Amino acid sequence: MTTIILLILAYVIGSIPSGLWVGKLFYNTDIREHGSGNLGGTNTFRTLGKKAGIAVTIMDILKGTVATTLGLLPIFETTNVHPLILGIIAVVGHMFPIFAKFKGGKAVATSGGILLGYNWPIFVLLIVGFLIVLKITKMVSLTSMILALVAVIYSIIYYFSVKHDVPLIGIVLLIAIFIFYRHRSNIKRIKAGTEPKVKWI
Questions:
Q1: Single pTM value for the model
Q2: pLDDT one-digit tens code per residue, 35-79
Q3: What is the DSSP letter of 16?
Q4: Which of 78, 98, 103, 144 is deepest in the core (most CB within 10 A)?
């Protein structure tokens, strides 16, 4: 029963629609009605501006981190659920949030939060890499997909050079699949040359 409660809690945390709540509470705006209609940080940046975009991105990252580290709480210390499982459940909640009619974000920030909670050096590497690649491509979607592949490669290198962490490889690969799947429409626009580009970097 404790394990079930833990999994449900991870999903509920992931389901918190940061972009929707920030938009409605502070800007009287439903970001689902603007831009791409997505609840993630990128559409928040475009619709509500930098402050809201940064706040939502941080909140989405922390959803993954909090869910991943839930097992550290004394109340759950007897459970055997791997922290990466809790993290990926939160990502599912982020993509299909119960609080927003199961229409959520594209899994990028919350997935990063998993890595922050589980293996922070990977998170730091990806943040630095994200900024560098975004500077070159000017496209958040393309950058996200490239960094998803980088994370998979890193997890494999980590396996052979540092620690035989099979769950890390499996979860990072699953995250990459999620990210590519959620960016299907972006891939079409990238091919067509119509994908929006950021101007702030």
A1: 0.93
A2: 888 899 989 998 999 999 999 999 999 999 999 999 988 888 778
A3: -
A4: 144
